[in-house]
Amino acid sequence: MTRPFNFSAGPANLPEAVLQQAAEEMLDWHGSGMSVMEMSHRGKEFISIYENAEADFRELMAVPKNFKILFMQGGGLAENAIVPLNLSHGGSADFVVTGSWSDKSQKEARKYCDVQIAATTESSAFTSLPPLASWQLRRDASYVHVCTNETIHGVEFQELPDLKSLGSNAPLVIDFSSQVASRPVDWSRVGLAFGGAQKNLGPAGVTLVVVREDLLGLALPVCPSAFNYKTVADNDSMYNTPPTYAIYIAGLTFQWLKRQRAGEATGIEAIEKHNAAKAQLLYDAIDSSALYVNKVSKDCRSRMNVPFFLCDESRNDAFLAGAKARGLLQLKGHKSVGGMRASIYNAMPLAGVQALVSYLQEFEQKHA
User: Fold this and answer.
1) Which of 134, 328, 362, 364 could connect to 291 by a Cys-Cys bridge, CB 3.0–4.6 Å?
2) pLDDT number for residue 360
3) According to the model, what pLDDT value does residue 368 have?
4) The pLDDT of residue 249
5) CB 152 within 8 A of CB 337
6) Residues near 40 by Cβ (< 8 Å), separated by ≥ 6?
7) What's the whole-model pTM score?
8) Residues of the chain with pLDDT under 50
9) Where in the sequence numbering do the catalytic residues fall?
10) For residues 227-239, b (16+ Cβ closer than 10 Å) or e, as one string?
11) Closest CA relative to residue 168, chosen from 149, 146, 153
12) 2.60.40.230, 3.40.640.10, 3.90.1150.10, 3.40.630.30: CATH of 17-257
């Protein structure tokens, strides 16, 4: 039986091969007599799972040796507090606000440091990105924060900003929760990256942090020990009991990503090609339609989250009901913006996007 196609923004669909392997290993992981859920996080079995997951992600994403990979808890929302607790020195931080998530980030950071909005696209209803030359960065800022992909508004940085071109030596902090492992990262431009796993990496529960080593050991005295990046790094993400099963599933996902092929491209380069092709197919269908519209500027449209609206919104309920009947799930847009949203993360197969495009065309013909 063919599974429905799940377009949820998160928790999102996982690769079917990963789910099948996890099911096979559920009661007995590799002859250990235990489920991964039952293992001690300090036992040799789980230590091997953790070490392999860390090594696979480092290889997959070409993470330099001078960055630590941390598996934490709390999701992206918690990192909105954990980052300033670790990096702000109680001083100042600059934020580029391009949608709901970066706006949440700057509001949370205000509890711990002096926040300035260096640039924002609120006036365009977050349908564009502010030109890099317009960013107003402070010389004394401890870091600069951007959300590289706005899950709700469907806006994505196609290239990471080069802060040095603006005369800034502040580390760039990126929230790549809904973009992680969908394309390569230019680590030369990044000081710290964080993201919840529940969109591209695995189930909810584990939060990935990739932090440059020179940014460790700067936490404010009030920072909880379990959220101090240096403490977490010094203890190999096991200062407290980590989200073991979520790390295991993330590790299986990393292995699945490493197996991806697209022509001569492999791994992350291959999945990027797949993602670009899926997004182009869906955007072309929307742009060629008289019923659907995507409001995001074409130069910053997200490959991961595609919001769109019916020109006749009185047909929204009928559209969603018809989609569900065809096994196209979770297409309703976020409550703050309305409309529809198709999240087409790494695990969404091309067949899922093709099925959605066919339905878009069928629904439009029926209601023309």
Assistant:
1) 364
2) 98
3) 75
4) 98
5) yes
6) 46
7) 0.96
8) none
9) 101, 175, 199
10) bbbbbbbeebbeb
11) 146
12) 3.40.640.10
